[in-house]
Every structure is written in structure tokens, then in C-alpha cells.
Amino acid sequence: MNRIDLHIVSFDVPAPPDYGGVIDVYYKLRALHQLGVKIHLHCFQYGRSASEKLNEVCAKVSYYPRNTSPFALLSSLPFIVATRKSSALLQALGSDNAPVLFEGLHSCAYLASDELKGKLKIVRTHNIEHDYYSGLARVERTFFRRTYFEREAAKLKKFEAVLKNAQHILAISPADAEQLSTRYKGVEHVMAFHPNESVNAPEGSGEFALYHGNLEVGENNQAALFLVNDVFSKLNYRLVIAGNKPSDELKSAAAQFRNVEIKAGISTAEIDRLIHTAHINVLPTFQATGIKLKLLAALFNGRHCVVNSPMVANTGVESACIIADSAEAMRSAIEQTSAVPFQSTDIEKRKTVLGERFSNQKNADKILKLLR
């Protein structure tokens, strides 16, 4: 059988796969490559270097500079879309009959273009973007950034209608699929791609709880502050917060408590080691959007997971977590779990819950069927 050619337009350079969005893109590339798909990857570049690693799974990789001029804020398009336009990209996508997979609403500037009429077009949605940006606005403390997120949310809500030009929409979570299905045709759920081949959680006990995430993101900063001020301030148990660019507010809060430590600017490998050695991965969120890849990392590689309902809503992994929806409930869950070793029966339960639902191969098969 002839190999299938596929254009993939990525919002960022997806290697190294070291944060949520690009993790999904990179491991999708790998899984599709293993199924024999000939991938023509198009990356918008801003701050991340060209990657030789991508040449291992792609037939061709093209890079386009992202134009982050402040003038793009004046566009009627969302900033995340207006800054990802390139005439060279449009020409490349229209040069053959190969289908196009657009990664995220970010990359959909040309989804409705006349040059691409008649082509099979697929969009991978990573969030309900206007809901996500509205959530960022709610937790933002500075006026300029809050205003930016509010305006971006309004623009994204209007721009989302471009999805009617795609034959297929691949939602990253069941909740997103349900919502998008009320507005568009061809929606199906394809779970997040990730680096985990199998459950690698260790038996036994650790000596600390871990929260990890990109601390520059408002919702992660809010979650970390909640853990410091409302949960671990009243516990005699160690909390490690790992992630990039912690806010001054978070650093000041953590400095007040001897049992709280921030590890900033550490490598992905070091974060993976912390996930694996922690006794509890504690992961609250106040935004139930998409699926958090840090949750998958904790479930595949860590011991006990204490979360709140928005972190696991409609993910299918609820039974593998300890759910606590208030500061008091979270403190109680941590106190009780801190004395409970992680056992082989817990690992077997993880394997059962994660199973085929999070199989990269199975999910790549779903995409391959759409291309034939």
C-alpha cells in the first residue's frame, strides 16, 4: 500500500516535547510516522530552535517565523492566529493534494482559504480556546494582561466558526468533543498523545508532595498559591513546587513556610524524577479545559494523585485519583495518604484505568482512518 502524505501545521516547534501543547504534537508525529504516514511538518518558530529530532519522524520540516509585532493586536483575528500567517506556508499547503492537519485553532489562519478548497482538512483542538482565555483573564492580576486575555477570548469565540471548513475536528477531551459537536459536524474525541508507553509508577513510599507545571501560566500560579496558602500552610508535610518562572507572589508565599520549596528552571528530566519519587502528586486546577498532560505524567509515572474535580472531569481517570474539592478536604486527603504506601494493586488499577484509552497507537489509528 502506498504511503499517505500528510501536511501538519504546528503552532510551535514541537521538539523538545517539554510543555503540554507540543507534547501532544510531537508524540502524534511519532505515532503517525510508525504507521507509515509521510509527514510534511510546518512549524511556526518563536524562541525555539530548529530541531534535528523532528527529521527522524518527518519527511520534511519547514519553519516560518511567527510575527509577534504589537500591531497584530489591532487585527480582527485573535493574536494567536494573526501572528501565525505566512504566504510561503499557504503556497506549500496548496501545492499538492495531500490532506492537512492543523494543530490548534492557533494554526487555522488558512483553514477557509480558497487555495485549500477541495483538500481534506482536519483540526486538532487543544482546548475550547475562548473558554481557556476567559479563564486566564479571571486569574490575571495585571490590567494589561487581563484586558488582553478578555479581548482575545472574544476574538477566539468569533473566529472559532472557521472550524466549519474542516471535515474532521479532533477534540482532546470528551467534554470538548461534546461541546464542539453542538456547533460543528465531524467532531470526534482523540485523546492526548503523550510520552508514556506503560505505567511506571513505583511501589512504596516517598517523602514529599509535588505540584508541577509552567508557573508562568496564570492558572498554574493560582493553583500553586492555593496549595501554599490554603493547604500546606496548615500541614506538617513537605511540598515541592517545580516549574518555570514562578511569580514573585508565589516565591514570597512559599518563603513563609519551612515545608514548602520551589524548584525553578529545572530540566524536564528532573521534573520526571520528582514525579516518580514523590509520595503524592497533588494537582488542583481551577480551569476544566482539555486534559492536563501533567495529570497523565503523574498517573503513568507517580504514586498517589490528589486532585480536584475540574482536573479529572470527564477524563475517565477519576477512579485512579483521590478527589478533594476544598482546601480542608485536600488537607485531609494528604494527611491520610501520606501514611499509605503505594502498592502493586494500585499499579494494576492504573493499568486498567489507563489501558487503551491513552494508547498512542490506537489514537493514531483513528487519525489514519480519516486520511484513507
SS-based class: alpha/beta
| Average pLDDT level | 94
3D shape: globular
What CATH calls the topology of the largest domain is Rossmann fold
CATH evolutionary superfamily of the largest domain? Glycogen Phosphorylase B
Number of folding domains? 2
Query: Regarding CATH, which class of the largest domain?
Result: Alpha Beta
CATH architecture of the largest domain: 3-Layer(aba) Sandwich
Helical fraction equals 25-40%
Q: What's the count of strands?
A: 13
- Number of helical regions: 14
What is the N-to-C order of secondary-structure elements (H for helix, E for strand)? EHEEHHEEHHEHEEHEHEHEHEHEHHH
Q: Cα-atom Rg, whole angstroms?
A: 21 Å
Q: Beta-strand percentage?
A: 15-25%
Distance between the termini: 11 Å
The main pleated sheet reads as: 7 strands, parallel
- Side-by-side strand order of the widest sheet: 3-2-1-4-5-6-7
Describe this entry's structure for a reader.
By secondary structure, the chain is of the alpha/beta class. The protein folds into 2 domains: 5-193, Rossmann fold (3-Layer(aba) Sandwich); 209-356, Glycogen Phosphorylase B (Rossmann fold, 3-Layer(aba) Sandwich), CATH 3.40.50.2000. The chain has 14 helices and 13 strands. The strands form 2 sheets. A 7-stranded parallel sheet has the order 3-2-1-4-5-6-7, sandwiched between helices. The mean pLDDT is 94.
